[in-house]
Amino acid sequence: MNSELHPSKLGTKEYWDKVYESEITNFEEIGDEGEVCRIHRFGIESVKNMVKWVTDNVPISTNPSVLEIGAGNGALLFGLCEAGYPATSLSGIDYSPGAVKLAKAIASSRGYEIAFHACEFLHEDPPGLSHTKREVLALWDVMLDKGTFDAIALSEKDEKGNSPATDYPGRIGRLLKSGGHFLITSCNFTEDELKKLFATTETGLVYHSRVTRPVFTFGGIKGSAYSSVAFQKTPC
Ligand SMILES: C[S@@+](CC[C@H](N)C(=O)[O-])C[C@H]1O[C@@H](n2cnc3c(N)ncnc32)[C@H](O)[C@@H]1O
After folding, report:
1. Residue 4: its pLDDT value, please?
2. CA 92 to mean position of chain CA atoms
3. Centroid of ligand 1 to alpha carbon of 219 (angstroms)
4. CA of 220 to the centre of ligand 1 (A)
5. pLDDT tens per residue, range 150-199
6. What is the residue range of 152's domain?
7. How far is the CA of 81 from the centre of ligand 1 (A)?
8. Quick one: average pLDDT of 61-82?
């Protein structure tokens, strides 16, 4: 795990609860849907890129079940809905009840029947879709993360110095269907770091592809503002 990352307020639930409290007020008062990640270095553009990756790689005709972890205001799932994925196959979880309330309010204002649930991903199994069997755990054809692993990696470490993010890749592998895809966008981890963390025998994931994104040059060194990488769970 990236030992360079130091705990910050972005890794606390209190921080996100406060953010969404004010976002809900803005939505109720002036209809501003908010865009949490505009204050965290990536926003609309990464939503577009992630939606494009999904449409290019996971056909709408297969009616894939999709879970976004840490869905915030739901913008990424709304993007998938607009691209033609059936809302009833899309689900978003977030541990902040304010995020769930905001995403539900926006979904309802747009007439989208996407499921949003309060769920702490590291310790609770996300509820399945209404039409999936409850006893099945590996429910998801596609799992998405935009900024959530980043936030978890900024949480306080335990007494042994381990980050809570250490458990995250294994939980993805456990909940993803065989052959399913996990697409993650991060501004704290490089593509190589993401590969090392997620493509392991424990997760059963292998590297699939990267999302093409803008590259900047600074001091003669090429880099990009964020990494978007896709993994696939090895088909049985
Ligand atoms: C950087 S924001 C990204 C929100 C959204 N994906 C977006 O791109 O706008 C991180 C989100 O993860 C949520 N989150 C952080 N840790 C979580 C956890 N352990 N379980 C579920 N949600 C979590 C936060 O409440 C927050 O909404």
Report:
1. 61
2. 9
3. 32
4. 34
5. 999 999 988 888 899 999 999 999 999 999 999 999 999 999 999 999 99
6. 9-233
7. 20
8. 97
In a domain, 3, yes or no: no
Write the DSSP symbol of residue 137: S
Ligand 1 pocket: which of 94, 106, 143, 149 to mutate (most atoms within 8 A of CB): 94
Asked whether 167 lines ligand 1 (CB < 6 A), one says: no
Does ligand 1 lie within 6 Å of residue 226's CB atom? no
Tell me the mean pLDDT in the region 94-115: 96
Please count the structural domains in the chain: 1
Rounded to the nearest angstrom, the distance between the alpha carbon of 72 and the centre of ligand 1 is 6
The answer, yes or no, to whether any atom of ligand 1 lies below 6 A from the CB of 148, is: yes
199 in contact with ligand 1, CB cutoff 6 A: no
- Kindly report the CATH number assigned to the domain that includes residue 192: 3.40.50.150
